[in-house]
Specification:
259 residues; Rossmann fold; 2 domains; two-stranded antiparallel sheet; 44% helix
Length: 259
């Protein structure tokens, strides 16, 4: 399928590794111009080198922190100056802080919401004037816990749930500008954090053996790969999904309890 992404300009936050980096790779393969965003320049340079090795194309990047209003504006100003347009914003920056409610202080709540919910809001506010010019797509990366929060998942599941409500609201408010807003809810996907758990819990097992352990209770029988998440994200931000807005797609191997 032709995703019709050629010459589209995309910004991806948290894209120096993991799903963000893999999504940048897929969009680049599909012909998009991608600007990577993360806090650490060393990681961004490595991501650019890795993607160039795979695709033969050199990506742009901006060092920025989504918890900063001025940094969010800096990213969009750079894209406007360099490319003259913005078609796609993918809000991927974030981390999972989950604890028993009794162990979570007010500062923890504020920090989590500031990174996730308000990180999305900062980037969207900054990007909106450019997206309004020709329409486009916003994609927010949430987690299945945002739909069905388990025990000991504060504050991350609450931040994600708020982000899903924001996604639905924006899909209605921004439709008049032909801006589509969707989310994906990530389950267990191979990442640096999960690989550390693998090395700690079962260093004698291969990745395939560890990923398919029944203890994860994944109906498809294994932990997912970043490429599998990136392919879904690329579709949702592409013109091939031009009539899809206001939805949150689970990428979890069937393990989620909610549609």
């Amino acid at each position: 399928m032709d995703l019709r992404l050629t010459e589209k300009v995309a910004v991806i936050t948290g894209s120096s590794k993991g799903i963000g980096k893999e999504t940048a790779t897929v969009l680049t393969e599909e012909g998009a111009k991608v600007v990577l965003v993360a806090r650490h320049e060393d990681g961004l340079k490595q991501a650019v080198a890795d993607i160039k090795e795979k695709t033969g194309k050199t990506l742009d990047y901006v060092v920025a922190d989504v918890t900063s209003d001025s940094d969010a504006k800096k990213v969009i100003d750079y894209v406007k100056d360099q490319y003259g347009q913005l078609d796609i914003l993918i809000n991927n920056a974030g981390s999972a802080f989950a604890e028993n409610f009794d162990q979570v202080g007010l500062d923890d709540w504020q920090n989590d919401l500031n990174l996730k919910l308000f990180g999305w809001l900062r980037m969207i506010h900054a990007a909106l004037p450019e997206l309004k010019k020709q329409g486009g797509a916003i994609l927010n990366l949430a987690a299945v816990a945002g739909k069905t929060p388990p025990a000991q998942s504060s504050p991350t599941s609450v931040s994600r749930a708020a982000g899903l409500a924001l996604t639905k609201t924006l899909s209605k408010d921004l439709a008049q500008y032909n801006i589509r807003v969707n989310a994906v809810c990530i389950g267990l996907i191979r990442s640096g954090q999960i690989e550390k758990r693998w090395q700690q819990d079962a260093p004698d097992k291969t990745w395939e053996e560890y990923a398919s352990d029944p203890k994860f209770n994944i109906p498809l029988g294994r932990i997912g790969d970043t490429r599998e998440a990136a392919d879904v994200i690329a579709f949702l931000v592409s013109d091939a999904a031009s009539y899809v807005s206001g939805t949150a797609v689970n990428i979890d191997g069937g393990s989620g309890a909610a549609l």
